[in-house]
Amino acid sequence: MGAMTELGYGWLTPLLSYLMAVVGSALALRCMVRARAAEPGSRGRWNWLAVAAVSLGIGIWTMHFIAMLGFGVTGSEIHYDVPLTVASLVIAVAFTGAGALLVGRGGGAVRLRRLLPAGLLTGVGVAAMHYLGMAAMRLHGAVSWDPVLVVLSVLIAVVAATAALWAGLRVRGRAAGIGAALVMGVAVSAMHYTGMAAMRVSLRAADHTPLGGAGTMAFVFPLAVGLGSFLFLTSAFVALSPETEADAESARERRGGPSLPVRP
Q1: Residue 96 lies in a domain
Q2: How many separate domains does the chain show?
Q3: DSSP character at residue 76
Q4: In the chain, what is the straight-line distance between the N-terminal and C-terminal CA atoms, in Å?
Q5: I need a surface site. Which of 36, 54, 154, 186 has the fewest CB within 10 A?
């Protein structure tokens, strides 16, 4: 028996999830700007890249699960398998981290042969996070997927991830960074809702078996709120932290010409 899916809180959760994607993207872009200003191979560069990776991964994961707070299936409760849900967070951070480190290591020009594999790696990781998070769902029914929309969602994830890494290398100034983050929020949200549109639920009639896992408000909500708070606090810290001498020097260089160009 087919089931209707619904958005339980109307536009509230889509808007909040978009905000989290924007905050995570903006923080990651700002950290990548600070990373490229640091000495190549230095501890400072690795630290900024690590914060960028964690911020982007957490931002995308939080976006996904805040959106899922408003998701419902008529005729069934929804629970989440705790280990799989946590694994989806680890995958998001690990893959975004690998992509950021691939394009951020060393100095000089960043070539397409590093940018494109990094974008592919990050995008596949984002898609894996999404579908592992969906696999963590427990409900009274079976879930199937439209393969065309699944492939489309993965392509959107790869393009969005490549654009995010490129922006992290090219965007200069806070205004440009905010603009890039707004666009990235749209791309990440498009990937999520395309993936959700691919989902088909068939309920099992009169199935009252207790669901495994944890309830949405008991597990996903506090975890999403905690990670969202981390993003906002980290954003405030990065925004208020003084620029180092290397940052100032990099800014002078950028006024004189582009830094870290992407070459074919």
Answers
A1: yes
A2: 1
A3: B
A4: 52
A5: 186
Domain housing 17: 13-242
Does residue 251 belong to any structural domain of this protein?
no
The residue type found at 236 is A
Q: At what angle do helices 174-197 and 12-37 cross, to 10 degrees?
A: 130
Instruction: Read off the pLDDT of residues 223-238 as tens digits, 9 standing for 90 and up.
Output: 888 988 888 888 888 8
CB neighbours of residue 145 within 10 Å: 14
Does this model's pTM top 0.85? My answer is: no
Residue 259 lies in a domain: no
Helices marked H in 198-244 = 221-240
Give the E-state strand segments of 110-150 in sequence order.
110-111, 137-138, 141-145
Stretch (H or E) spanning 204: none
Q: Could you give the CA distance from residue 147 to residue 195 in angstroms, rounded to a whole number?
A: 10
pLDDT tens-digit map of 86-132? 999 999 999 988 888 887 665 545 567 788 888 899 899 999 999 99
Which tokens hold the place of 256? 């004189």
